[in-house]
Specification:
The complex is a heterotrimer of chains A (273), B (358) and C (281). Helices cover 23% and strands 35% of the residues of chain B. Chain B contains 8 helices and 20 strands. Chain C has one domain (48-277): MetI-like fold (Orthogonal Bundle), CATH 1.10.3720.10. Chain C has helices at residues 4-32, 49-56, 58-92, 97-105, 112-123, 128-135, 150-174, 178-186, 191-202, 204-219, 223-229, 236-243, 250-277; strands spanning 36-38, 41-43. The chains are: A mainly alpha (273), B alpha+beta (358), C mainly alpha (281).
């Protein structure tokens, strides 16, 4: 007589969890499905599969201009936020100075503050400094706001690092500068990649801060926003689906990098919780 | 090999056992961790599950506690089916290996937990908590939090938390393994005294055979998911049933040889033995062998000559590694005797060479 | 181990940048709140008029109240959705845990705008939901109150912030040692009792973090009302936005922003204290 080992899984909870997941994915599913719908964004059920909206999308020049603008800003934001975030993380991890806790809070503030506040205060700064609103101001806004993301990620990575490695490097005769490049940075590899991906994605999607700092050239989100004000077209479904696909791809790449970067033991641990 | 009686080592007319493990087996997927265990635990006894890691002792404990379900077999307690009940309905409590104290509750709240959950009136709860803390000598720490306590102190609180519920059976999962040697010895003594005093049945799990021998009324030795031997400490030491038991518990010389025509011969040793012909193994404890300077021997003794190759001193006694020739080396434990060397005569009683199987 | 030059070198640039591009701008906003606009021109006349206006204008107060209500609803709904999901994932899955976790995270990477837009297409009079209901003959007329209402704003923001609430709660739950749950069962507490006595208290830090995040970000949101809210759902950030846009009154807008900022900072302070109280584990 053999009995199966039962897992006391509460079915009600499982159903509820599944419903929550469905709720989270419902709008995305609708978006994707209707990007192929000839009749546009509304009505039910969707019929007449078509790729027309995608064709229209690919022919849409101004949209792709905004994509380029977004990419430029994102690249700049990544560079700026990463460098300053790394320095800030190192400072928080290793240095002590008066006002350090104020500094820490200040750096992390844009993470939790609604974008409008950060955006508006930067707008005032820009106007007092007599700067023209342009992609440059947008880049400044993104870079500044996203330092917090880089700092958080890199600080966590520094805390996990084994200090003894840096001490060993100094002991063997390397200067602090050499130690930084040969020991510290390689140890932060995973955190750096995570920060880059995160900053890039957040910058590409940023609206609130951008809203107030935008000049003549639109970023992608603001271009979409502009069109939304004028009227809905399934072309927006198409671009949204593409954005979703790219985001998922980035996430998968990140997952691959992370598991490979950790080594086989850790990977096994992750697969057999 | 299991003994015929379900409660070996106890008188046959003992009362109905408190806990009956009937043919319990457990597999995790393809891995067979326990292979049909049958064991009875008597009320008021201190039974230890002894074994190496992977022997299944912790799994058996968890099955009795209710954290796992048996793949086969049944568990009964006080004449009622136990294994179909969830852990919160069993009159069984556990002292966990890493104590598992609730970090967000104070010590006295931790101890009171089991009583509160059952809706025990506040005054009664308070009384019993005070009594339990006094029993483990942790009264002054009642308002502290687990994070502020040392390992030994946490262990006492864990004990109090379990005992305050007056369980019919207390399970202890290697509770002393995280303590340092001196504290461990002290806690062993206290645990044994405590069990004697309150009379609750203890099921203790450990891999440390010294601990098992010191504390238990009976030891159940587990090996690869099966019971190797169940007996009192004295019996399991003096009459190990298998070679594994003989080597696991205490030290021994494992003599391998054969019996032919009423004579047992292992290497250089020969003695009369009335048993059927065939291969045989014997366990001979080092302390059973002694020096025989005048070479005399009785009829019931075996004499042999050997060269002392090594001497391992350990304070009150020492172990001599004796080469008997033909590649046979025996360990002999003698009282401290100063440096020795060369050939000597040794002697041991025939009855001390216990025949073991497996 | 680190020389003073090292420490100065790593501290100076971020300090300077943050001072210049964060502290200074916030200070500027603060300063602006005490100035005023006369005849369409900004005048640096220090006064408290803006604050007076803010607290005496019934429209502003009504909008503020509505904003707090909406933010509160979003927080509660996101918790009601996110917590059970996190609990289920943490305690009742084994083999597929990592995969399910990734599934919950993925939508986080989908643009805010995209998700808001999706709800717009679902809830509209000729949207997907109405089409669906019509198709099943559940309704004859399109239901029009779904879109352009506070309900739509709460729905959209809940959808956006549920994964944000899920994350810290899940992390907190994962940190709870499983033997504690076994110990609770061992002592006689069933799953329900164990949840309220052990799991919930120990997950408080994560819960507080998630709840704060959802509330604070909803409080300052201006996009959802514009996308799906309509005029009946104007939130305080929309007022600020218009004061910096068409209604050109930077000082007043700054005053309101400063108030929002102070409200948020005090909330964060409060939560930080609470989190500390719930986490000397």
């Amino acid at each position: 007589m053999t009995r199966q080992s039962q897992t006391r899984r509460p079915t009600l909870l499982a159903i509820y969890a599944a419903l929550v997941l469905a709720f989270i994915y419902l709008p995305i599913a609708v978006l994707v499905v209707y990007s192929f719908n000839r009749d546009g964004v509304g009505g039910f059920p969707p019929r007449d599969f078509t790729l027309d909206w995608y064709r229209q999308l690919f022919a849409d020049g101004s949209l792709w201009d905004s994509v380029l603008s977004s990419l430029l800003v994102a690249a700049g934001a990544v560079a700026l936020a990463l460098v300053l975030g790394l320095l800030a993380a190192l400072a928080l991890d290793r240095a002590d100075f008066p006002g350090k806790s104020l500094f820490r809070r200040l750096v992390l503030l844009p993470l939790i503050l609604p974008g409008i506040i950060t955006g508006l205060s930067l707008l005032m700064f820009v106007s007092i400094a007599n700067l023209q609103l342009s992609l440059l101001t947008v880049f400044l806004g993104h870079g500044t706001a996203l330092i917090s993301v880089a700092t958080t990620e890199l600080f966590a990575g520094l805390q996990k690092m084994d200090r003894a490695q840096e001490e060993a490097s100094l002991d063997l005769g390397a200067t602090p500068w050499q130690t930084f490049w040969r020991v510290t940075l390689p140890n932060l590899k995973l955190s750096l990649i995570a920060a880059v991906l995160l900053i890039f994605t957040l910058s590409m999607d940023e609206i609130a801060v951008t809203f107030f700092l935008i000049g003549r050239d639109n970023t992608l989100p603001l271009e979409i926003w502009g069109r939304l004000r004028r009227g809905i077209t399934p072309e927006i479904n198409a671009i949204s689906t593409l954005i979703f696909a790219v985001s998922v791809a980035l996430l998968v790449i990140w997952y691959r990098i992370r598991t490979r970067g950790l080594g086989s033991e850790a990977q096994q641990l992750m697969e057999n919780p | 090999m299991s003994s015929a009686s379900p409660t070996p080592g106890l008188p046959a007319n003992a009362e109905i056992p408190l806990l009956e493990v009937r043919g319990v087996a457990k597999s995790f997927g393809p891995r067979e961790v326990l292979k049909s265990i049958s064991l009875n635990i008597a009320t008021g006894e201190f039974l230890t599950l002894l074994g190496e890691s992977g022997s299944g002792k912790t799994t058996l404990l968890r099955l009795i506690a209710g954290f796992e379900e048996p793949s086969d077999g049944e568990i009964w307690m006080s004449g009622e089916r136990l294994d179909t009940l969830p852990p919160y309905q069993r009159r069984v409590n556990t002292v966990f290996q890493n104590y598992a104290l609730f970090p967000h509750l104070k010590v006295r709240e931790n101890v009171a937990y089991g009583l509160q959950v059952k809706g025990t009136p506040k005054t009664e709860t308070a009384e019993r908590v005070v009594h339990a803390l006094a029993m483990v000598k942790m009264t002054e720490f009642a308002s502290a939090r687990p994070a502020q306590l040392s390992g030994g102190q946490q262990q006492r609180v864990a004990l109090a938390r379990a005992l305050v519920n007056r369980p019919q059976l207390l399970l202890l999962d290697e509770p002393l393994s995280a303590l340092d040697a001196n504290l461990r010895k002290q806690m062993q003594s206290e645990l044994k005294a405590l069990q004697r005093e309150i009379g609750i049945t203890f099921l203790f799990v450990t891999h440390d055979q010294d601990e098992a021998m010191a504390l238990s009324d009976r030891i159940a030795l587990l090996r690869d998911g099966a019971l190797e031997q169940v007996a009192t400490p004295r019996e399991i030491y003096a009459r190990p049933a298998t070679a594994y038991t003989a080597e696991f518990i205490g030290q021994t010389n494992l003599l391998r040889g054969e019996i032919r025509g009423g004579i047992a011969s292992c290497g250089a040793l020969r003695w009369p033995l009335d048993d059927s012909d065939g291969a045989a193994q014997f366990s001979l404890r080092p302390e059973a062998i002694r020096l025989s300077p005048d070479g005399a021997r009785q009829i019931s003794e075996v004499k042999f000559r050997g060269t002392i190759r090594q001497q391992l001193y350990s304070g009150a006694s020492e172990v001599l590694e004796v080469d008997c020739g033909v590649g046979q080396i025996l360990r002999v434990r003698v009282a401290a005797c100063g440096p020795m060397s060369g050939q000597h005569e040794f002697v041991y009683s025939i009855t001390d060479a216990i025949r073991v199987h497996g | 181990m680190y020389s003073r030059t090292y420490k100065a070198f790593v501290s100076a640039p971020p300090l300077l940048w943050v001072g210049l591009f964060l502290l200074l701008p916030y200070a500027l906003m603060f300063a602006h709140s005490f100035w005023e606009v006369r005849d369409g021109v900004l005048v640096h006349q220090w006064n408290l008029d803006n604050y007076k206006k803010l607290f005496t204008n019934p429209v502003y107060l009504e909008v503020l109240l509505r904003t707090v209500r909406i933010a509160g609803s979003v927080m509660v709904c996101a918790l009601l959705l996110g917590y059970p999901l996190a609990y289920f994932l943490s305690f009742h899955t084994r083999a597929r845990k990592e995969l399910l976790y990734q599934l919950v995270i993925v939508p986080l990477w989908v643009s805010y705008l995209v998700r808001g837009y999706a709800w717009k297409t679902i809830l509209g009079s000729d949207g997907v939901l109405n089409g669906f209901l019509h198709y099943l003959h559940i309704t004859r007329e399109p239901v029009s109150f779904l879109l352009y209402s506070p309900f739509a704003v709460v729905l959209t923001l809940t959808h956006i912030y549920t994964p944000f609430v899920f994350l810290p709660i899940y992390a907190s739950l994962e940190h709870i040692p499983r033997p504690l749950v076994e110990a609770s069962h061992d002592l006689g507490a069933g799953p329900f009792s164990t949840f309220f006595r052990v799991i919930l208290p120990l997950s408080m830090p994560g819960l507080l973090a998630g709840a704060t995040f959802a509330f604070v970000l909803s409080l300052g949101d201006f996009l959802a009302p514009l996308l799906v809210g309509g005029p009946s759902s104007t939130m305080i950030a929309n007022i600020v936005q218009s004061l910096f846009g068409a209604a050109y009154d930077w000082p007043l807008g700054s005053a309101i922003s400063v108030c929002i900022l102070l409200l948020i900072v005090s909330l964060l302070f409060l939560t930080e204290r609470l989190e500390k109280r719930w986490s000397f584990k």
